[in-house]
Design brief:
This protein is mainly α. It has helices at about 35-45, 50-55, 60-85, 95-115, 120-130, 130-145, 150-170, 175-200, 205-230, 235-265, 265-270, 275-290, 295-315; strands at about 10-15, 25. The chain has 13 helices and two strands. It has a two-stranded antiparallel sheet with strand order 1-2. It is globular and about 45 Å long.
C-alpha cells in the first residue's frame, strides 16, 4: 500500500584510499535504533486505546467521548501543522482526506466506543486484530494490487479464526458489539487504504493531521449536542481515558508511528505492530482487571500467525 522506505535497503559507499586507488565498498551505517524505539512507542500507544476508551466511558457518554476526542486531537494537530508551517493540501486531495476522516477519525472511534459498552477490551482486541487483513482487501480493490495466493489463504484463515472466536464468545450468534466491531473494521480499512494512497504524496502524519482538522467543525457541533444530552460524571479514570485517546492514541501515537516508519521502513515497522492485540490483552488484565478468556490469547496468537504469513508471502513474491 505504501512505498518501501529507503532506510530498509542496504547501501554501500566507496571510499578512496590515500594513494588514490578505490577501496572495496563498505556498508553504510545501519538504521539508528531511534526509529525502532519510535515505532514501538506507537504500537504501545495504540494498544492502550481500548482500555482508555473504557475508562473514558466512566465519565462521558459514547457520543460525547468520541466528539471530545476528535476536538482535542484536532486542536493538537492543527497547532502542530501551524508550527511546522505546513502548506494546505491541493484541492484534489481533499476527497481522499474526507475518506480518511470518515473512517479513521470518526467511524472507527465511534463504532469501537459503542462496541465497548457491551464487549470486553480483550474480546475487541482479538476482533480488531483482523484489521491488517481487512485493509489488505480494501487496498487490493482500491489500488489493483494482486497479492499471491498464499497471502489470501492466510487472510481467509485469520478471518475464520476471528469469526469462530466471536461466535463462541456470544453463544453462537453475533452480538450488537460484534456488529459494531466488524463495521469499525470496514470503515477503518477504507480510511487506512485511502490514507496510504495519500501518503505517497504527503507525509503520513500530515494526512492524519489534515483529516482531524477537516472534522473539527463537525466535532465541535457533535460535542455541543452530545454534552447537552449525555450526563457527565467527571472522575480520574474518565479524564485520563479521554486525554489518552485524544493526545496519546490519536496525536502522539500516529506521530511517532510515522516517524518510526520513515527511519526504519514500513516493512520493519509493520512487523512490530503484530504485537498490538497481545499488548491490549495485557492492558485489559493489568488496568481493568478483566478476566481474559482462555480462548482470547489463543485466538490472538492465531490471528498474528496468519498476519505474519501474509507478510511473508508478500515478501516472497517481491
Amino acid at each position: 500500500m505504501r512505498a518501501e522506505s529507503s532506510a530498509t535497503t542496504p547501501q554501500t559507499i566507496a571510499v578512496a584510499a590515500s594513494d588514490g586507488r578505490p577501496r572495496p565498498p563498505v556498508p553504510a551505517s545501519a538504521p539508528a535504533p531511534r526509529g525502532t524505539l519510535l515505532a514501538l512507542l506507537g504500537v504501545v500507544t495504540f494498544s492502550l486505546t481500548f482500555p482508555s476508551t473504557v475508562w473514558g466511558l466512566e465519565s462521558f457518554g459514547p457520543w460525547s467521548l468520541v466528539a471530545l476526542r476528535s476536538v482535542l486531537a484536532a486542536v493538537l494537530s492543527g497547532g502542530f501543522l501551524l508550527a511546522a508551517r505546513v502548506r494546505t493540501p491541493a484541492r484534489e486531495h481533499w476527497a481522499g482526506l474526507a475518506v480518511v476522516a470518515g473512517g479513521v477519525v470518526v467511524g472507527f472511534p465511534l463504532l469501537t466506543t459503542l462496541a465497548l459498552r457491551t464487549s470486553t477490551t480483550s474480546h475487541a482486541a482479538v476482533v480488531v486484530g483482523l484489521l491488517p487483513l481487512t485493509t489488505a482487501v480494501f487496498s487490493s480493490l482500491r489500488t489493483g494490487t494482486r497479492p499471491p495466493r498464499a497471502f489470501w489463504a492466510a487472510a481467509v484463515a485469520g478471518a475464520a479464526v476471528v469469526i469462530a472466536f466471536t461466535a463462541a464468545q456470544s453463544g453462537g450468534a453475533l452480538s450488537a458489539g460484534d456488529l459494531f466491531l466488524f463495521g469499525a473494521l470496514l470503515v477503518c480499512a477504507a480510511g487506512y487504504t485511502e490514507g496510504g494512497r495519500l501518503a505517497k504524496v504527503m507525509p503520513g502524519w500530515q494526512v492524519t493531521g489534515w483529516a482531524l482538522v477537516l472534522t473539527l467543525p463537525l466535532s465541535l457541533a457533535g460535542a455541543a449536542v452530545a454534552l447537552a444530552y449525555e450526563p457527565v460524571r467527571l472522575g480520574v479514570h474518565g479524564v485520563v481515558g479521554l486525554v489518552w485517546v485524544a493526545a496519546g492514541s490519536t496525536f502522539l501515537g500516529l506521530y511517532v508511528w510515522y516517524r518510526g516508519m520513515a527511519e526504519i521502513g514500513i516493512a520493519r515497522a509493520s512487523q512490530l505492530q503484530l504485537a498490538q492485540p497481545l499488548l491490549t490483552l495485557f492492558w485489559s488484565f493489568f488496568l481493568l482487571g478483566e478476566e481474559v478468556a482462555a480462548a482470547a490469547p489463543v485466538a490472538a496468537v492465531a490471528v498474528l500467525v496468519c498476519i505474519a504469513l501474509t507478510q511473508r508471502a508478500t515478501r516472497t513474491r517481491s
